[in-house]
Design brief:
The complex is a heterodimer of chains A (70) and B (138). With 70 residues, chain A is mainly α. Chain A has helices spanning 11-17, 23-30, 34-41, 49-58, 63-66; strands spanning 7-9, 67-69. Classes of the chains: A mainly alpha (70), B mainly alpha (138).
């Protein structure tokens, strides 16, 4: 348990660039809870491939533009 | 409390109910008068189980009225699976210890309560593990 140090993401920046989309709006579009989006943003939970692709799809970006593996 | 999901609130309610009910129950039945379950013991056991089920059911009905229940997502499933893995070790150990107790201690009182204690302990650890994962991440 704890931070998933290897996977970072740009979700927070992308949300603000998309009319300051709320975590709840993104959660509804992706089909997870707001708390899960919050956990992903804070690198506390690495999402499944499916959720990662869905998030990237919402921002109309390739998944590698949203998530980075370090 | 406003930031908690339905699942977290449900876990808190169940954890509090289990800890309170079993603390009062064990304070009432311990130490046993005889080595076997007598009628008053069986009545108390059934009574406290009834109280526990009623409290959990009513509190969850109230919670469901106050807060919309969201479908369980992948993170919550993972949190539950990890907690189940830990608590199953405790429950399995409890069953083994209860078998040893049944072989060594006459009567059924300690056998029943050893199994019961480990079932409660595994439930409490499961809930704490899940609540911790919700806050700290998984």
């Amino acid at each position: 348990m704890g931070k998933s140090a290897n996977i970072t993401n740009q979700i927070r920046t992308l949300r603000f660039q998309h009319n300051e989309m709320t975590q709840q709006n993104l959660a509804d579009l992706v089909g997870v809870t707001r708390q899960t989006i919050n956990a992903i943003e804070q690198n506390k939970y690495p999402p499944s491939l499916e959720v990662a692709f869905k998030i990237a799809q919402v921002f109309d970006l390739p998944v590698t533009a949203v998530f980075q593996y370090q | 409390m406003h930031d908690l999901t339905f699942q977290e609130k449900s876990l808190w309610l169940t954890l509090i109910a289990v800890v309170l009910t079993y603390t009062v129950y064990y304070l009432n039945v311990m130490p046993p008068i005889e080595g076997r379950m007598l009628a008053p013991h069986i009545f108390q056991f059934a009574y406290y189980m009834g109280v526990l089920v009623a409290f959990v059911a009513i509190s969850h009905i109230v919670l469901a009225i106050k807060q919309k229940q969201e479908p369980v997502d992948e993170r919550e499933k993972l949190i539950r699976l990890k907690a189940d893995a830990v608590s199953s070790y405790i429950l399995n150990s409890g069953v083994f210890i209860a078998i040893v107790v049944a072989l060594l201690v006459p009567g059924n009182f300690w056998f029943i309560h050893t199994i019961n204690f480990f079932a409660v302990l595994s439930e409490v650890v499961n809930s704490i593990q899940q609540l911790r994962a919700y806050r700290k991440g998984c």
